[in-house]
């Protein structure tokens, strides 16, 4: 069966993701575009015995990109990896004029296009009316009214997709004819619109040099924009009508959410609510998951016998994987709330109000989206810095951004807070949720502080204003919420799980075998003959001796003098070292270390950690001083090889990436040391 290739194209905030999810119904896969670490979403569906592959391209306003994601979409449209049979162009019906600019560009490339007018309900609420039949005739393409929230019009789309490709003839503007008389055009040597755009993009790569050709190109592009909007205005002249509406909901709400006082207060309340919800809503499912893995480990241990394979599974693999899966409820809740904030249009308002503050710290408005994106993950956030034209501000943002608390730090915070912070209410609020919020705020404080310090030591350049469109408010799409949470949680589990699965096996091996078996046998013999040790404590003592003299224990003893001033023992030191691969690996490593050699596989990992005693002090290893020191270290350090690699890639400098890693590690060590010694 032949598979037809469909590209989903449109401006940002037009409902592309919602339509993509409806069409594919979770039959999707996530990958990377060739040569760049940006997510590529591809889905599949069937209709009338035909198979379709649909690619959700990043949103863009024009084929002349302003950032890396727009560049990816533009280049794919110009030179697709595989032939595009149809393009589904989704447009905001309430802002059709803006959307038609990109549509006219794509149509001039000769593609067969289906125009989907989304947000028709919003259009009607604004008093806008569109004569769909006349618009269809003038554009020469099929048009479908849809509602990506309810699924209205989806069957009509599938029917049109199933038609033979290129059935309808395009009616291009022939922009080349309009602009080729310009004297600057001859420098591009283009005979059609595709060659023209390709030539422009080639010259765009040299824009930092501000060559004469590039300056001429800007004049040509201005002329093209004028001609296209003339064409669009002519089309819409007798097709679109607008009536006055009595109220403007968006305007009224913006007066509150963008207020210079109430705007910030509401933003803090939203943040506070998020972190309270993360703890309150997730506690029950987390307990179920934790108990389930403990029961599974105990069951397998009892039924598989005492052998190498059994020990590997019950002491290595299961505890390691459990250390990731247990945090799915909290990760899902975080993504659920963030998706709601994005869907209703509030995320862009946060960026807008925070712009007033961020300029104080040497950043401009274009730094805000990457910094806020850092709450999810530093890697795509750093890549989003490509949108910042000013190289100085771009580097400052990249340097400071990893201080933002990403989702990978959340599992570490949750474990430590659960160990050292009482689960009680303070003035009607959950104390653990308050501490979690403080850890996120600590990341914000150090992000802006680092930006300020770095900006003082770098040469200033002319700042650029924050220019972007605030979308209209709309109710969140329930289906889109579900797909987003499932997809992002799945990516978290798979990405972290692959690393932890491999490390769990390695750590189990290093923790289970030793080069000093003679010493171990002597100490075990001494314990078995001792009358001072209770019988029920002997197995625990023997397990501790085996672990301490294992390869892992020996490695831990070497690094213990380095981490001891922070209040950590060698086990925590090993977990810190392992988590350089990914921050969340800390939990899986600790889980494996505390499971190796333990006969009681049914006891919860957090209970084993709570009962851990420091042999030197006789006190609990995880106390308030150690716990807060550990969280501060993770809040301020760059415990992520992938982040280091992406910084090097974006700056094209190992010197920059190394300096950042060393700088953040020193900051983390100093403040962790201070935290421990103040609280001890």
Describe what you observe in this structure:
The protein is α/β, with parallel strands linked by helices. Helix content is 60%, strand content 8%. The chain contains 29 helices and eleven strands. A hairpin with a 2-residue loop joins β10 and β11 (429-430). The longest helix is centred in the middle third of the chain and has 43 residues, at 262-304.
Q: Give me the side-by-side strand order of the main sheet.
A: 2-3-4-1-5-6-8
Task: Please describe the biggest sheet, giving its number of strands, its sense, and whether it closes into a barrel.
Answer: 7 strands, mixed
What is the structural class? alpha/beta
Helix content: 55-70%
Mean pLDDT: 77
List the helices and strands and how they pair.
Elements: E1 3-10, H1 16-24, E2 28-32, E3 39-47, E4 50-56, H2 68-78, E5 86-92, H3 96-107, E6 113-118, H4 120-125, E7 128-130, H5 132-139, E8 142-145, H6 154-161, H7 175-179, H8 193-204, H9 212-236, E9 240-242, H10 249-257, H11 262-304, H12 308-325, H13 328-344, H14 346-358, H15 368-373, H16 378-383, H17 391-400, H18 410-420, E10 425-426, E11 429-430, H19 431-456, H20 478-512, H21 517-529, H22 535-548, H23 551-563, H24 570-578, H25 585-595, H26 605-611, H27 624-636, H28 641-651, H29 654-679
Parallel strand pairs: 1-4, 1-5, 5-6, 6-8
Antiparallel strand pairs: 2-3, 3-4, 7-9, 10-11
Helix pairs in contact: 3-9, 11-12, 11-13, 11-19, 12-20, 12-25, 13-20, 17-19, 18-19, 18-27, 19-27, 20-25, 21-22, 23-24, 24-25, 27-29, 28-29
């Amino acid at each position: 069966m032949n598979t037809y290739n469909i590209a989903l194209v449109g401006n940002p905030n037009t409902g592309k993701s919602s339509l993509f999810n409806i069409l594919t119904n979770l039959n999707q896969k996530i990958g990377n575009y060739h040569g760049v670490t940006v997510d590529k979403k591809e889905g599949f569906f069937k209709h009338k015995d035909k198979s379709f592959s649909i690619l959700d391209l990043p949103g863009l306003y024009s084929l002349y990109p302003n950032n890396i994601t727009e560049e990816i979409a533009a280049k794919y449209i110009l030179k697709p990896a595989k032939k595009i049979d149809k393009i589904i162009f989704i447009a905001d019906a309430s802002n059709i004029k803006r959307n038609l600019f990109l549509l006219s560009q794509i149509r001039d490339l000769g593609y067969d296009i289906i125009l989907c007018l989304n947000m028709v309900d919003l259009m009607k609420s604004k008093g806008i009316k569109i004569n769909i039949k006349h618009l269809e005739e003038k554009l020469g393409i099929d048009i479908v009214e849809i509602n990506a929230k309810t699924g209205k019009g989806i069957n009509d789309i599938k029917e049109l997709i199933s038609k033979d490709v290129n059935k309808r003839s395009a009616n291009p503007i022939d922009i080349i004819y309009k602009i080729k008389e310009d004297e600057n055009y001859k420098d591009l040597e283009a005979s059609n619109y595709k060659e023209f755009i390709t030539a422009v993009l080639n010259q765009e790569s040299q824009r930092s040099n501000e060559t004469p050709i590039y300056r001429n190109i800007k004049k040509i592009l201005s002329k093209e924009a004028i001609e296209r909007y003339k064409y669009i205005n002519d089309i819409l002249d007798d097709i679109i009508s607008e009536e006055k509406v009595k109220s403007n909901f968006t305007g009224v709400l913006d007066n509150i959410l963008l207020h210079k006082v109430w705007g910030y207060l509401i933003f803090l309340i939203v943040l506070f609510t998020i972190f309270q919800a993360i703890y309150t809503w997730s506690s029950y499912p987390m307990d179920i998951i934790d108990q389930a893995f403990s029961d599974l480990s105990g069951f397998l241990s009892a039924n598989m016998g005492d052998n190498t394979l059994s020990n590997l599974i019950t002491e290595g693999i299961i505890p390691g994987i459990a250390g990731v899966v247990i945090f799915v409820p909290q990760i899902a809740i975080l993504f659920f709330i963030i998706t709601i904030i994005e869907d209703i249009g509030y995320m862009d308002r946060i960026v807008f109000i925070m712009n007033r503050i961020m300029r104080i710290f040497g950043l401009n408005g274009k730094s805000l989206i990457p910094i806020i994106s850092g709450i999810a993950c530093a890697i795509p956030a750093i890549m989003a810095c490509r949108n910042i034209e000013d190289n100085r501000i771009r580097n400052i943002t990249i340097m400071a951004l990893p201080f933002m608390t990403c989702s990978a730090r959340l599992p570490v915070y949750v474990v430590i807070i659960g160990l050292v912070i009482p689960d009680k209410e303070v003035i009607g609020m959950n104390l653990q949720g308050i501490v979690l919020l403080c850890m996120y705020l600590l990341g914000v404080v150090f992000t802006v502080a680092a930006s300020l310090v770095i900006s003082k030591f770098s040469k200033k350049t002319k700042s650029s204003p924050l220019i972007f469109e605030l979308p209209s408010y709309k109710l969140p799409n329930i289906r889109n919420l579900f797909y987003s949470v499932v997809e992002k949680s799945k990516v978290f589990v798979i990405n972290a799980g692959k690393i932890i699965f491999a490390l769990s096996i390695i750590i189990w091996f290093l923790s289970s075998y030793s080069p000093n078996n003679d010493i171990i046998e002597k100490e075990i013999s001494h314990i078995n003959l001792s009358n001072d040790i209770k019988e029920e404590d002997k197995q625990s003592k023997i397990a501790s001796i085996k672990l301490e003299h294992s390869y892992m224990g020996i490695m831990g003893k070497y690094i213990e003098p380095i981490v001891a001033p922070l209040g950590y023992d060698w086990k925590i030191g090993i977990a810190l070292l392992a988590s350089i691969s990914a921050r969340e690996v800390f939990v899986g490593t600790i889980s494996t270390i505390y499971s190796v050699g333990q006969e009681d596989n049914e006891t919860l990992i957090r209970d084993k950690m709570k009962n851990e005693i420091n042999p030197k002090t006789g006190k609990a290893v995880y106390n308030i001083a150690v716990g807060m020191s550990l969280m501060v270290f993770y809040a301020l350090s760059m415990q992520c090889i992938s982040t280091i690699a992406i910084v090097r890639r974006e700056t094209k400098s190992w010197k920059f990436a190394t300096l950042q890693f060393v700088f953040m590690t020193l900051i983390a060590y100093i403040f962790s040391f201070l935290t421990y010694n103040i609280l001890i």
